[in-house]
């Protein structure tokens, strides 16, 4: 796993805030100890409930994807016999962090622990590609749309990811099921260390006073537990290449809120729970539309 560092201008504030959050998270963490015993198993940990913080894609992005990408993608999946992938439900989003917890009170605890959100984030979504949970693990795998890794919006997002991960990871009851078993076995040392200490790989953390950024923000269009055979990989890489010719300049948008959500095993969002405005910090109960803060 490639780990990159922040520029000095953003490191000090993010590292200090994250360290303080790590020290202060005990009051919101569950009483049960975090259990990493599933990491010794050859099988995936059973999935009970995964919660996360995500940016739902604004309509100006989903409108473009629906008009230019969704139908050809669905037809390609059906042609390959990937029926579950073609039918999978997902609220389009870009992830900040995911945690696993069987405690249904976890979303409320996450809201209480959530750090101050950034202002609206202007970013460009660009470049389709396939990725595996761990190279040669076989599954799960995804088709993603990346985010351009430059600009204030991107830097603000990555800084928030660092402090949000520090604040919310202690609320987990153990590792995300999708990074256990055959995936954990194929990870490198850096990825395994993040799973043991944060419950998932590929997240931004503070280590030795420095913010390390392993997070690769993206939007996922396909979630799959089908074997990622060479044939499937080659076909999906061809699909990604085709889509890159359809949207060569990507899609520029502004995220104006961030949501606490529930997710399925592979990371697709199945329910929005709380929506937090990046404009004024207000909070809405997504089920009722009622403002609660």
Count of domains? 1
The shape is: globular
Mean pLDDT: 90
**CATH level-two architecture:** Alpha-Beta Complex
The CATH topology, please?
Cyclic Phosphodiesterase, Chain: A
Q: Give the biggest beta sheet.
A: 5 strands, antiparallel
Can you offer a commentary on this structure?
It is a single chain. This protein is globular. The chain has a single domain, classed as Cyclic phosphodiesterase (Cyclic Phosphodiesterase, Chain: A). The protein has helices at 8-24, 59-68, 70-79, 83-87, 106-113, 152-168, 181-186, 189-198, 230-246, and strands spanning 4-5, 50-56, 93-100, 121-132, 141-147, 204-207, 210-213, 218-224, 251-255, 257-263, 269-277, 283-285. It is of the alpha+beta class and 293 residues long. Strand 6 and strand 7 form a beta hairpin. The longest helix has 17 residues, at 8-24. The chain starts with a strand and ends in an 8-residue tail after the last strand. This is Lipoprotein. Residues 1-28 form the signal peptide.
């Amino acid at each position: 796993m490639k780990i990159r560092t922040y520029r000095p201008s953003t490191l000090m504030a993010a590292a200090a805030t994250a360290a303080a959050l790590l020290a202060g998270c005990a009051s919101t963490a569950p009483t049960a100890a975090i259990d990493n015993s599933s990491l010794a198993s050859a099988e995936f940990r059973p999935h009970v409930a995964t919660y996360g913080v995500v940016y739902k894609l604004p309509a100006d992005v989903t409108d473009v994807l629906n008009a230019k990408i969704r139908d050809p993608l669905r037809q390609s999946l059906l042609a390959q016999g990937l029926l579950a992938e073609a039918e999978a439900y997902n609220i389009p989003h870009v992830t900040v962090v995911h945690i696993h917890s069987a405690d249904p009170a976890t979303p409320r605890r996450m809201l209480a622990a959530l750090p101050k959100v950034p202002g609206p984030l202007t970013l460009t979504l660009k470049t389709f590609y396939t990725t595996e949970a761990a190279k040669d693990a076989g599954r799960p795998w995804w088709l993603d749309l990346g985010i351009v890794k430059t600009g204030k919006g991107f830097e603000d997002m990555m800084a928030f990811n660092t402090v949000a991960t520090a604040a919310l990871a202690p609320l987990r009851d153990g590792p995300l099921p999708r990074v256990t078993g055959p995936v954990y076995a194929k990870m490198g040392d850096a990825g395994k260390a993040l799973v043991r200490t944060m419950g998932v790989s590929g997240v931004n953390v503070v280590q030795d006073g420095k913010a390390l950024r392993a997070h690769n923000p993206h939007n996922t269009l396909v979630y799959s537990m089908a074997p990622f055979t060479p044939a499937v990989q080659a076909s999906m890489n061809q699909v990604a290449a085709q889509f890159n010719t359809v949207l060569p300049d990507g899609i520029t948008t502004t995220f104006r809120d961030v949501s606490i959500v529930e997710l399925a095993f592979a990371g697709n969002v199945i329910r929005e729970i709380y929506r937090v405005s990046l404009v004024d910090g207000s909070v809405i109960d997504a089920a009722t539309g009622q403002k609660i803060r």
